[in-house]
Amino acid sequence: MGILFLIVDGLNLIRRVYAATPEGEPSAHFDAALGATAQSLHRALAEHSPTHAVVVFDGAEPTWRHELYLDYKAGRKPMPEELRAGLDRYREAFSKLGVSSVSKPGIEADDVVATLATGVAAHDGKAIILSTDTAFCQLISERILVRDHFQKRALDEGYVQQKFGVGPGDLVDLWSLAGSTTTHIPGVPGVGVKTAAKLLEEHGSLERVLQAAPGMKGKLRESLQANVELARLSQKLSRLRADLELGWNLRAFRIGRIGRIGRIGRVGG
After folding, report:
1. Which of 31, 40, 171, 226 sits 20 to 30 Å CA-CA off 156?
2. 4-155+242-253 maps to which CATH number?
3. Is 259 left (phi over 0), alpha (psi -120 to 50) or beta?
């Protein structure tokens, strides 16, 4: 049997369930959300029957993206304090299901997830990323799937094409032009998703769009020419890093294997 790695975007799962749990007295609300989240992970394990699984959390800020762009994710609704204070209880609940939780200081969960998924794919395994975050759709391939656990659907190539007008391989360049409201990535002022998709269809890549800008008309030409560096910055912010030296071994994430994760090397084996 080959490797099937279930990689869970921890805060995406936790915050979605927490927000959907009927409110009440804070401690009761927390306990109900905690139980519902553990049940949700249990269902995912039963549905996909992975050989390996892990829940990934953000490392403490600032990350390299915040250092590159101070307004990155500015304006996002903060996590409720009782939830932030109780994250260790979530990790304990996941551990009881045989699933470890990981994070890296100063590194977003997104980059850890990308590194784990691409590492497994490179070793002929398959990865399922459990998240509603469309940032992961740039990773979609025959060996990397993105799953919306709540809607019970795959965020696949057809989904990406319908939502954004481009394929998964063009998403980073699309966000470089159109920006992203969820992460506050700026993009090029005045360029929306439809315009960005049309430009990429016509020219093929961000760099070719920028090269072609002098021949365009009106405000689009002006905005593209005035914001070349902003577009390239947005490209850097949008692209997930998949080359991190995590120092973990895949064996540590076998279902049911609970314990300290040693610094052994790149993911593989």
Report:
1. 40
2. 3.40.50.1010
3. left
3-state helix, strand, coil split of the chain in percent (to 5) is 50, 10, 35
Burial class (CB in 10 A: 0-12, 13-18, 19+), 53: buried
pLDDT score, position 256: 63
Q: Which residues of the chain have pLDDT under 50?
A: 257-269
Compute the CA torsion angle 145, 151, 157, 158 (nearest 10 deg).
160
H-helix segments, the chain:
10-20, 26-48, 64-68, 81-85, 87-96, 109-122, 157-164, 171-178, 193-203, 206-212, 218-226, 228-238
| CATH architecture designation of domain 160-238 | Orthogonal Bundle (1.10)
Write out the DSSP string of 27-46. HHHHHHHHHHHHHHHHHHHH
pLDDT in the model for residue 172: 98
